[in-house]
Specification:
The chain is an alpha+beta fold. It is built from 5 helices and 5 strands. The protein has a domain at 174-260. α1 (2-126) crosses α2 (132-144). The chain starts with a helix and ends with a helix.
Length: 260
């Protein structure tokens, strides 16, 4: 009875030990499962962060590429502007050089223009007295504008040049115009038609075409022409006024010594 009891007790002890051992393994397994679950959760959270950081990295990379493209574009534009600025600076330097030259030229041109007007005034006074009032007024106008600030230097020079051109044209053309001539010195001018033969000779004819005169540059007087020249002078006046076809006509002219 005592032996059986001992065996029974040993068996009970073994069963208890096994039961305890089984209890311990189940606890450890549950803890392991919890640990794995936590690991998975942590891994998922880490993946979410990785995905987030990856997206941010992609965005930053895209922005960087855009910035790099913009930088290259700006660099090209800046190079273009730099080339333009350099060209403009070179152009400004040339303009400044021209301005400096203009100032120097102005200093030489102003006295030259004064000399030209003065010479033209003397020339008109010594020349044959055709269109005397018109030519004298032209010279006077050039003298009047000399000190006007509202007229540019270029415009003044142009007017002087035009006056010289007009005077030059007188020497290679013929002209006719109506006017008055004090033939007898009485102070009462008779209506006549003046005829200019270049700068070689100046004639006048009464409007009834019965008398004619030629200007004597040496004595500065008018001498009457022979009747034989009346028809020729009439022809010349008509041609000058474009009232007749171009044709030859014969008129006396001063000798070369007198013309000089």
């Amino acid at each position: 009875m005592s032996k059986l009891s001992s065996k029974t007790k040993l068996a009970s002890a073994l069963v208890g030990a096994l039961a305890f051992a089984g209890s311990v393994n189940a606890t450890e397994l549950g803890g392991l499962q919890n640990s794995v679950t936590k690991t998975h959760v942590a891994a998922e959270k880490s993946q979410v962060k990785i995905n987030k950081y990856f997206d941010q990295t992609q965005d930053l990379l895209f922005q960087y590429n855009q910035t790099e493209d913009t930088r290259e574009s700006l660099k090209g534009y800046n190079d273009y502007l730099a080339a333009q600025v350099a060209d403009q600076e070179a152009e400004m330097a040339l303009i400044q050089k021209d301005i400096d030259y203009v100032d120097t030229l102005r200093q030489a041109v102003v006295p030259l223009m004064d000399d030209m007007v003065s010479a033209l005034d003397k020339f008109v006074a010594l020349d044959l007295p055709f269109n005397a009032e018109t030519r004298a007024n032209r010279v006077q106008n050039l003298q009047d504008i000399r000190g006007k600030a509202d007229i540019s230097l270029a415009e003044k020079f142009r007017l002087i040049f035009d006056a010289y051109s007009i005077e030059t044209d007188y020497g290679r053309s013929i002209g006719a115009y109506a006017g008055t001539l004090d033939v007898d010195g009485s102070g009462k001018g008779a209506l006549v038609d003046f005829f200019r033969l270049g700068r070689v000779a100046l004639f006048a004819q009464s409007q009834d075409q019965k008398q004619a005169w030629m200007y004597d540059a040496d004595s500065k007087t008018w001498s009457e022409l022979d009747e034989q020249y009346l028809r020729e002078l009439t022809k010349g006046i008509r041609i000058a006024r474009k009232q007749g076809a171009n044709d030859l006509f014969s008129l006396p002219i001063p000798a070369a010594e007198s013309a000089q």
